[in-house]
């Protein structure tokens, strides 16, 4: 595969390096940022090319820009008459469907989306963890996408284009909102007198233990704590003491925990005592 990169950010640079290692040919890169190109060239010695040079020379074109720029790139390629029949245009957005590249109905290109389900802090970090990363694959040539992901050392998952926003929302909940939950827990520890820097350090092993349980036993078995036990009095105590700004968040999470708790007990052939279940639902607003 001869490929080109438009947008020399972390993802584009890491993809170029890994695909080259897998035996594919990187023809070059096009980027507006001189600093991004200098960083790119520090990892892979390829020329910066104008679109007129890059696009006709490749059979796969990766658009690894910010989401809002992706359709603008496609429009620019059309405006410059840089549309190569049969070429595959690929973007790496988690929230946008591959069809965002099809800015005209009759474009003779095939569109594909490959989204790495991972948070990359730097190019170095991306190169360390790209192998083993799960990818959402969606578009007109999903088999090619699956092959590319495997060449990257990744694990492909085909997703529905019509529901891709929900896929991305799930990724945001699992990654970004995990940091938000940690912040909420640190706030509560601080209210209890533990300095914030100590609070995070003390919470991380607990969070890592939960992640380990998720990996080891999965859902819903990894759920522990007062709602899993059906301890309504503990939940009431929490709600009595919580700062008002956190109450509704706690209740929403608690209702989801109660769903998991019911599933966990069902697998074990058990159920919550009716009085206990009603009390928990009443406390949590369910």
UniProtKB/TrEMBL annotation:
Residues 134-255 form the DUF2520 domain. It comes from the Bacteria. InterPro entries: 6-PGluconate_DH-like_C_sf, DUF2520, NAD(P)-bd_dom_sf, OxRdtase/DH_put_Rossmann_dom, TM1727-like_C_sf. It holds the Pfam family Rossmann-like. Residues 2-116 form the Putative oxidoreductase/dehydrogenase Rossmann-like domain. This is DUF2520 domain-containing protein. It comes from Desulfosporosinus meridiei (strain ATCC BAA-275 / DSM 13257 / KCTC 12902 / NCIMB 13706 / S10).
């Amino acid at each position: 595969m001869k490929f080109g990169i438009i947008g020399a950010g972390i993802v584009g640079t890491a993809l170029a390096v890994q695909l080259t290692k897998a035996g594919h040919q990187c023809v070059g890169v096009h980027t507006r940022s001189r600093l991004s190109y200098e960083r790119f060239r520090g990892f892979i010695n390829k020329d910066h090319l104008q679109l007129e040079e890059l696009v006709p020379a490749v059979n796969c074109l990766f658009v690894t820009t910010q989401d809002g720029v992706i359709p603008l790139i496609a429009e620019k390629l059309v405006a410059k008459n840089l549309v190569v029949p049969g070429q595959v245009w690929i973007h790496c957005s988690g929230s946008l469907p591959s069809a965002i590249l099809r800015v005209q109905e009759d474009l003779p290109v095939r569109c594909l989306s490959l989204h790495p389900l991972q948070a990359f802090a730097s190019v170095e970090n991306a190169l360390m963890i790209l192998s083993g990363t799960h990818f959402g694959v969606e578009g007109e040539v999903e088999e090619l996408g699956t092959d590319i992901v495997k060449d990257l050392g990744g694990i492909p998952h085909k997703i529905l284009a019509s529901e891709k926003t929900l896929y991305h929302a799930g990724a945001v909940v699992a990654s970004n909102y995990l940091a938000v939950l940690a912040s909420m827990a640190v706030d509560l520890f601080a209210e209890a007198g533990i300095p914030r820097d100590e609070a995070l350090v003390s919470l991380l092993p607990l969070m890592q233990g939960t992640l380990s349980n998720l990996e080891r036993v999965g859902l819903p078995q990894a759920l522990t704590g007062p709602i899993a036990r059906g301890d309504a009095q503990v939940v009431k105590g929490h709600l009595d003491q919580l700062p008002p700004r956190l109450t509704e968040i706690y209740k929403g999470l608690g209702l989801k925990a109660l769903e998991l708790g019911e599933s966990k007990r069902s697998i074990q052939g058990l159920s919550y005592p009716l009085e206990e279940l009603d009390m928990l639902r009443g406390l949590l607003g369910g």
